[in-house]
Design brief:
Layout (H helix, E strand, L loop, with lengths): L4 H10 L18 E3 L22 E5 L4 E6 L2 E11 L2 E6 L8 E5 L5 E10 L2 E8 L8 E9 L5 E3 L9 E6 L9 E4 L4 E6 L2 E8 L2 E9 L7 E8 L23 E4 L1 H4 L5 H14 L7 E4 L29 H11 L3 E6 L3 E2 L2 H6 L20 E2 L5 H17 L4 E4 L10 H6 L1 H4 L10 H13 L4 E5 L7 H4 L2 E3 L13 H14 L8 E3 L10 H12 L5 E3 L8 H8 L7 E3 L11 E8 L3 E10 L5 E6 H4 L7 E5 L4 E6 L2 E6 L3 E9 L5 E5 L10 E7 L4 E8 L5 E6 L5 E7 L3 E7 L3 E7 L4 E10 L1
Parallel strand pairs: 11-28, 17-18, 17-26, 18-19, 19-22, 22-23, 23-24, 24-25
Antiparallel strand pairs: 1-2, 2-3, 3-4, 4-5, 4-9, 5-6, 6-7, 7-8, 8-16, 9-15, 10-12, 11-27, 12-13, 13-16, 14-15, 20-21, 28-29, 29-34, 30-33, 31-32, 31-34, 35-38, 36-37, 37-42, 38-41, 39-42, 40-41
Helix pairs in contact: 6-9, 11-12
Amino acid sequence: MKDNRRDFIKKAALGSAVISSGGGLSVFSDKNCDIIPGLNANCGISPAGTEKIISVWKVMFDESGPEIMLVNGPVIIRGRLDFFSGTERWRVGKSRDGVPDRYSLIDLQGNVQGYIVLVQDSGQLEVLGYHRTAQNYSGIISFKGTISFFPGSFACRTRAESDERVLSLAYGNADSLLNDSLFDPESDTALRFDAPELMLETAGAGSYKVILSGQIHEASRSAFIINLEKDYFRNRYVPYYHSLDRKRCPKTPSGWMSWNTYFDTATADDNLAEARIGQKYLQPFGCEFWHIESWQGNSDKLPVRNFYNMNLETSKRKFPKGMKRLADDIRKLGFRPGLWMAPFGTGNKEFYDQHRDWFVHDVEGKPVPCWNGQYTLDPTVSEAREHLKTIFRTASREWGYEYFKIDGMSGRNHGYSAHLYERPEIKARFRDPSCPNPFELCIKAFREGIGEDRVLLACQGHTSGPDVLYADASRIGADIVSPNKPVQWTGVHNQGRCFLNQAFTHNIVMIADPDTLLVNDLTLEEARVSATIIAVPGQLTFFGDKLAGLSDERMKILQQTLPVADVHPMNLYPYFSMLPVWNLHVRNKMLGDFNVVALFNWENEDQTISFTTEELGVDPHSEYTLFEFWTKKSLGTIRERFAMNVPAHGVRLLAIHKVKQFPQWISSDRHIAQCAVELKEYEWKTDTRTIEGKVHLIGTFPLTMRFCLSSGYSLSKAECQGAECSATNEENDILAVTLSADKTGDYAFRIMCRL
């Protein structure tokens, strides 16, 4: 953390005493514009998006401002360049000695006392200030302006610092004072800034405000760098980079699957019985898919390598009416059917005998086994790949499945396909040993078979491999539970560890899948941890408990994860430690900006977890109100720092809002992420001292909103048209308003206050 970021933000907030208030750009002309090589003579700019990113910035300077414009393809940075020496504002002018790429710092007497130099190197532009020889004065170089970037971009952080404790996430185009970059997922382009003092603020789709500042009297703080970098992820972490297909996957999938409770025993009747319960208790909240596992021939008993994974033979005992009938029955219940497959090998000897040359053999001619089968597929055999396409096409188009979970992908060892195929002794036995990446041939065949309109989950898929070219989601960790055993804390801990490591690519290249949310066999604290791990970052959300007999308290936890929040990472680099603080920056069009902060205790004993407002990237000089979601308690207000005790294997989830001088919404029990997705309309009316809004109620779910009645306000009356409404005063000026309705729909409410 830069040690003076707090002071800089304070100065910037005070206005133009330090930073110029001018942000607009004058019309450039030949008369007042310096042309830096690479720009055409009339300073013209092609329309945004019609130029490609190039290695050299085009620079224009208007001395009358003094203002500067930087252009690189569709990216435009424009604003005012200033210099302050103490209370004196010196003029930034053109070079007076003919030296190119250099501007003069002109004091109040008209003398050149220093320079600002622009240095370019492969898309990187350094703005450097220094004194003229033998001069000795202090001063601040500053730039305040606007950025026109790609429409689908967002503000983020790309430079990691040592000993970070906070994972930063964003809902909507939320900002953080810690951000140092802009990123566009579609083009994999990053605009990165490095400055002693820096602030980025989102102004609209692809539009941003920026402040850069440095001190001329310290060499270490006298420059700032602007770097436009194509292929940010591709050059670092994701060599096969492909942004998530939003047409196929406009929202993060949610659903239920049988494996982690039924394991290899679930029948068609079991799945449909669970689906009928899910139809009542989960579907109204947004649960979308019903997913079938362990349906193949010989799948009545583990291990998976014995299953008949490479043909469509079905277990007659468990699925006597066939898989098409089951898909139709699931769809009649209002769900989209999903199917588990593991076709990198098979346990079917008869199929192997018929297609022996489709499989890999060792030097002695014996078949090579893997996790997926006693006989492992050779992906370089074109006939085998065509067979894969055929079985997936049948399951997709004829049977009607719309979601495919492909298991046995990259994994962590040579039992899984990607590792196995990379081993030299195996590649040497392929029909085409020169194939550089046989694993990709398989995934490509899967996608071509199921079609471009189906969702593909790569179970044990990795963003470092070709999975990202074809899959929509990735199971990033091991199973949360061992076969035929109840879920344990170690599985929940692993969910957190795996997401922390892979959070930086979530919802950008593939959606992270933490495995199922299981709440029945865990302690209440551990169930809340798992639900928070999944719901706050908006991971793929599938449930795995037997729904029959699930208590109302545990069912509510499942309901509170839906619909899946549309969250993306703010820090675009991996973590390798168990960060205790997860910070979701929320931008809500009605409520403004606020934060939802999860404090995790990963240890076996109670711990005190703390954070500072500086670590959260929020204004350190403001006062904030805190409300804890799980215990439903107000924690009063804070400035700068907060700490609280969190029980072993527990989590505390805080909604953090700037204190306002009128009644304000601070929390709701509708959704764990607390992004206020249930609010359809919301407004505080000062003249009538009334909150008026509209909220989406689900008929089976009484919803409680909480408001902070600070500054002497108290409740006069609360009402909701068409729904029952009750209000309760709680500690620390908190008003709890509970609404319930018989039918799902939008309901207008009103809260009248008095002073």
